[in-house]
Amino acid sequence: MMETSARLLRLLSLLQAHREWSGAELAERLRVTSRTVRRDVERLRTLGYPVHSTTGTAGGYRLGAGAELPPLLLDDDEAVAVAVGLRTAAHNAVQGMEESSVRALAKLEQVLPDRLRRRVSALAAFTDPLGGRRGPAVEVGTITELVNACRDRRRLRFTYRGHDGSDSRRTVDPYRLVCSSHRWYLVGWDAGRADWRTFRVDRLALTPPHGPRFTPREPPAEDWAAYVSEGISTAAYPERATVLLHAPADRVAERIAPTAGVLEPVDGRTCLLRTGALSLDEMALHVLMLGFEFEVREPAGLGERIAELAERLGRAARAWRTDGEGRGEG
């Protein structure tokens, strides 16, 4: 059986990790009696921790929020996970997060024991963020304001810059923020267009005051991320196609990003790819370069264009063979 001080720390860690525990669950985790759990809860309250309890069959214990709540307790794996998350956040597309993440990471490293500090230091010394293309940075204040509006069901007003560079005034009921590896997107009901729209957050400029509150509508899809993926990879383009790929969906997903197409498993050996492009030639090249056998489901024009390209490639291959053989004979 754990000593009292160690048991109290373990109890506090459990309360921080889960919204609510029954007395029996805590007693089982701590390997003590329910009576001991009640005594330990009282000790935590004496130390200033706001532990709330409810009675009855559905009763239990939960840790309340409060200004006097001491710092979180983290086990070894949790501490390293937080450090990795902070280091990753320092290289994301949210402007202002870099410096805050570095400061938070420095504070965390100061209180880590030596064994964990070495693990975190190794992460810093032997890992590097991959450079290359990144999406335009978004102010952290903008993200916070959008999230609060989604939570409070508060109508937003903003100016939006379209693909052609023109600006338009929008009044939108915000529902969800979706983040890709490079960009942030807002999904909402556009009152002026009377339809659902997806907006790139880096292209909008909020123009408060916001409001009033709105009554939620039936969402356009159960999976918000999939909805945005389809919108930015397919619906946004003039040419759209559905292709049957002769490969499992998880294998194809290793080669195609959510921003480049939407995958739907058919069975263990095939999947459907829905994607878009600026032209049929670009679409054909995109599908061909995936490296899988495929069948065009729609549109018919894509199949016809691929047949034309195949004939052109065949002529080029035959000419190369003939010319190459001629040079070889000389």
From TrEMBL:
Pfam families with a match to the protein in the record: HTH_11 (PF08279), WCX (PF25583), WYL (PF13280)
Highest taxon of source: Bacteria
HTH deoR-type domain mapped to chain residues: 4-59
Database matches in InterPro entries: CBASS_pafABC_assoc_protein, DeoR_HTH, HTH_11, PafC-like, Tscrpt_reg_HTH_DeoR_CS, WCX_dom, WH-like_DNA-bd_sf, WH_DNA-bd_sf
SUPFAM superfamilies according to UniProt: Winged helix' DNA-binding domain
Keyword DNA-binding in annotation: yes
Keywords, sorted A to Z: DNA-binding, Transcription, Transcription regulation
GO molecular function, one term: DNA-binding transcription factor activity
Gene3D superfamilies, sorted: Winged helix-like DNA-binding domain superfamily/Winged helix DNA-binding domain
PANTHER family: PROTEIN PAFB (PTHR34580:SF3), PTHR34580
Protein name: Predicted DNA-binding transcriptional regulator YafY, contains an HTH and WYL domains
Organism, as annotated: Streptomyces pini
